[in-house]
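Friendly challenge for the regulars: who can give me the structure tokens for this chain first? No prize, just bragging rights.
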Amino acid sequence: MKRARAYRIVVGGLIITLLAWSVSTAQTFSQYPGFSEYFAANPPREILPTAQEQALLRRYQPRIYLPAQHPGLISFYDDYIAQGKLKGPDGKTISSNVTPALLNAHKEGPRAVFEHRPNDRGQTPVVFGRVDYSDRILETSQRFTLLTYHAVFRVSGIVAGVAWWQALALSIAGNLEDWHQLDHYTAATLVLDEAQQPVMLMLQQHNYTRTYLYGEALSRPEDGRPLVDVAIRSNELYPHESGRVRRRAVSFLDPKSFRYMIGLGKKPFMTADDITHPQHEATYELRFLAPSDAFYTFKGTLSKRRWLSGRDGPPGSDYNTLPSLKPPHRQLVAGYWRTGHQGDMARLDEALATSDYIGGFVQRQMPIFRENVRRVMNGQVPGAFK
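First reply, four minutes later:
Bragging rights claimed.
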């Protein structure tokens, strides 16, 4: 009896911690201060990628590796939006026959909710490709091309590396395989120089991104196509490695979590690793949408709301990071840190002493990032990076 009571106390405490850990407001992340100003100044293109851009996207489309028994990629519109209903701000159903046109007609409403209701119909694996440009990655006006590929998954689960006691607490709160509906932040961005040669790869992992330079962290594939592993349950994206690999992960890069990820601090409570174990390469169709499409820009919630904060699904995929990091060069630098690197750790420690530790880190890391990008472009050998 005492042991059972102890379990209830522990689990109860973990649930309370979980509730606090996943606090969010009733608003979607699209309403976070700064997004409206950013997108007003940087409106998304309203046309599809050009024929030349589409050819470039096909040339470099990533090889995506899935773990065993993974349900696989889906088509956002054919397999997800076509199965469910759209609700308005008053909670009333607008339609149970949601088309791309209808979803786009309501993409500006932050209180619109799409509820997915899967049926038994088969699924079509689709990845969406888009092209963006930046002339601020280096101090010069050199123009870089960013090829971004969004894989789409019906549900997102809890990281596979959770301990038994974490799994016990989380399983009371929800399904570990289906923590929330829809994963479409899952994106890989390949950055090309003016010669259209790959320089770096940025991968979305949970609520942050990681940037890997070719020649430093990654070997450049012969055909240029990046190799990406999908994590068990969580669907997060990591550079390809054969076998079962534990990947250090956190939900958000708050100061304590950031210190842990870079190798400065202890593992935070209720943190667990992602696990990748690639078993087969996914086949998929590469499709294209205008960057203004609801897939990217929907301000409401693209999943059924669930009772626990943190289990609601996302808005459009453009709301993948803080507004201050939306400029591509800043997002690339924010994700450029190397676990155990003494210089990176020192710069993070300095940034954590400021009121804006993310902005402070970007400012301090920018010169190092730019110098190493130049080294990649100049063909420096491994070990020559700062």
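Confidence is low (pLDDT under 50) at residues 1-25. The longest helix spans residues 357-377. Your move, everyone else.
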